[in-house]
Amino acid sequence: MCQCVNQKMANAIACSLIASRIDYCNAIFSGLSNYNVCRLQRMQNAIARVVVNDYSRLHVSEVLQSLHWLPIQFRIDYKISLLTYKILSTGEPSYLFDMLFFHVPARSLRSSADGPRLEIPFCKTVLASRAFSIYAPRLWNGLPLPLRNSISPSNPPSASLPLSTFTSMLKTHFSTLAFEAGTV
Questions:
Q1: Which of 23, 31, 126, 173 shows its CA 20 to 30 Å from the CA of 83?
Q2: Residue 132 lies in domain
Q3: Quick one: which of 126, 14, 33, 23 has its CA closest to 77?
Q4: Which pTM does this prediction carry?
Q5: What is the DSSP string of 138-150?
Q6: Run of H or E including 14
Q7: Best CA proximity match to 77, nearest among 158, 117, 137, 17
Q8: In degrees rounded to 5, what are phi and psi of residue 118?
Q9: Of 51, 70, 89, which residue constitutes the final position of a domain?
Q10: Distance between CA 103 and CA 119 in Å, rounded?
Q11: How far is Cα 95 from Cα 13, in angstroms, rounded to an integer?
Q12: How many contiguous H segments (helices) and E segments (strands) does the chain have?
């Protein structure tokens, strides 16, 4: 990397040119094959090494962690979870809100005390499981209780956490999953 471009500037350039392309409509990347996720991950890894100007010394997960970049699969799940939170807290856009239903058990169970869950529609195919109406509830139900409790299943829906707090907690959750498991 050129001596006149410092790491902060290189990070800004990489985020504006590369990360914006990865994040654009990344809801369609949900359920993407491992082969294609690996291709995107290799691209992100290469850009991360260019930003930190280190091509061999550090493991790529350390590089991504130092830049506060989530690996591709976690980045996709983060964006879909954030979109789900925004939809549930505002009720907008209505065409997506109409796809999400809070699970209401037929009778009172101990498991119903673990926060609001979304109803996961039945699907027969792998392709159908990639749909937002199925992938988002599955992802939402897998979030920790403090994150799921940020939404109240009232009508109209309301959020008890500000968006910035939820975003911070969500990124921390996915960073912990990504870097403690060593999935990169």
A1: 126
A2: 75-177
A3: 23
A4: 0.85
A5: HHHHTS-HHHHTT
A6: helix 7-14
A7: 137
A8: -100, 150
A9: 70
A10: 5
A11: 35
A12: 10, 2
